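User: structure tokens for this one?
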Amino acid sequence: MPQETGIKEMKSFIVKVLIVIVLFLLSLFAVYLLGAASGVLLLVFLGILLGAMLDGMAGLLRRYLKLPRKLAVIASVLILLMLVVATGWFIGPRLGEQMTELSRKIPEAAGKVQDMIINTSWGKALVNMAPSAKEAMPSAPDIIGYLTGFFSSTFTLISNIVIMFFIGIYLAIDPGLYVDNLIMLFPASKRERARTVLHYCMRALKWWLVGRFSSMAVVGILTALGLWIIGVKTALSLGIIAALFSFIPFLGPFLSFIPAFLISFLQDPALSYSVILVYIIVQSVESYFLTPLIDQKTVSNPPALLITIQLLMGVLTGPIGVILASPLVVVVIILIQTVYVEGILGSRIKVMGDQSSKSG
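Assistant:
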């Protein structure tokens, strides 16, 4: 009997070890698949964000103009296109001139800064460590490869924009179709809860977009106005760059500051100090006044968590991951609140998506 008991225990132990090994291998395979499909998943998430924005705009049109959903979505798309065309019509020529000037002056300014660095002792040491121009110059096959890669990347970008555009439109026209099919994957007893969680996620994403676009508009206007006041010639273009980059919290403002600093340094080295002051003032207004005010009405992300996710997404998926880190954090927080804290731990908390619905 003791021998049989020992054999049973040994078999049970071997089975458990095999189960652990299989689960570990499946986990590795799942991580590999997620890494391989990360580009597709992020593209789909971009489509979901666009769909949330179109659904929000269509909701306003349906509320005040009593339009059917499909007609409201089509009207929302036309409004966005008209805004783009109107913006290009009124500021396009001036913006085009400034962008051309930026593309010409930024390399010139960077070269000037490089010359100044070379004149320092530590700059000379860096130059001695750098490869020579002949070594750094790409060969003819490399140049052909770069050109091929550029055209391939451009075609891929255009294709992804078209795919994202249609995903967003189809989601906005009939969101119930996709929600109902997704809900069917859950057990019958959990479907209503899953529907509620999806509702929280979509509502939170809508309010996150409202907060981001509001912040982008204010940052762009204040930056362009401040640079214009101190005499920077390409203030409009730099303001638009600041607005676009502010879509990325924390990292965006720093990235938008670099071209402004280079342009002002080339125009007048003393002017670069005023540019630094303008960006400090604008970011202070955005961080200490605008963001808290927007967060009261929309949704906010824990800064430390957001920076961590931005770094991880940057390493795993590149720049697109950094751009989408903030809305992804919104979704992750809601899933943790609803699935783990409420569903598993049984604690009642104020869910992010529910909070925005009450405050809106």
